[in-house]
Specification:
The chain is mainly β. It has two domains: 82 residues; 90 residues, UDP N-Acetylglucosamine Acyltransferase, domain 1 (3 Solenoid). The protein is built from no helices and 30 strands. The protein has a twelve-stranded mixed β-sheet with strand order 1-2-3-6-9-12-15-18-21-24-27-30, with no helix packed on it. A nine-stranded parallel β-sheet has the order 4-7-10-13-16-19-22-25-28, with no helix packed on it.
Length: 187
């Protein structure tokens, strides 16, 4: 018989692979890892060989699967999905119905939300925000205080940083390096 821990009226058990807390209502595969200080709450799902490490939290109806990794004090919640070999770490947040997939990395204080997507080998970090229906793909990097919103897309080897604001239906894509820095506002 498994030992339960009750926190604020919710029953949790220690996951067999890592010892982290898993809510009675959550679904976590035995092959997944939930570290001793990590937690999976509400109706969240952690499937396959996904890893929830450090003090990371997966909650709401979020899904983390495949070989994805959530670490640090990162949070994935609402109906967000993280899959493939994607990584979300440090104090990053992925929420709403956002998707982080493939080999993408979201870290530091970055926020991905709405229906935004970060995939391929893209990186989003610093205090950057990817929101609404925007996407970042390829080997693109979005960082510092940049905001990519609406239906804008950043792809290829493009780097957008500083206080840049990219919105509307703007698409920045290339097969060579493009750098956008500073207080640029493109919509």
């Amino acid at each position: 018989m498994e030992a339960w821990i009750e926190i604020e009226g919710i029953r949790y058990f220690r996951h067999v692979n890592g010892g982290g807390l898993v809510a009675e209502s959550a679904q976590v595969d035995k092959s997944a890892f939930v570290g001793p200080f990590a937690s999976v709450r509400d109706k969240a799902k952690v499937l396959d060989e996904a890893r929830i490490e450090d003090r990371a939290v997966v909650k709401g109806k979020a899904v983390v699967k495949d070989h994805a990794r959530i670490a640090g004090v990162a949070e994935v919640f609402d109906s967000a999905k993280v899959c493939g070999s994607a990584q979300v770490f440090d104090s990053a947040r992925v929420f709403g119905s956002a998707l982080v997939a493939d080999e993408a990395k979201v870290y530091e204080s970055a926020r991905i939300y709405g229906s935004a997507q970060v995939f391929d080998s893209a990186k989003v970090h610093g205090s950057a925000k990817i929101i609404d229906k925007a996407f970042v793909s390829g080997w693109a990097q979005v960082f510092e205080s940049t905001c990519v919103c609406d239906e804008a897309g950043i792809s290829g080897l493009t780097q957008v940083y500083g206080n840049a604001f990219i919105g509307g239906h703007t698409k920045l894509a290339d097969l060579k390096h493009t750098y956008i820095n500073g207080g640029v506002h493109i919509k």
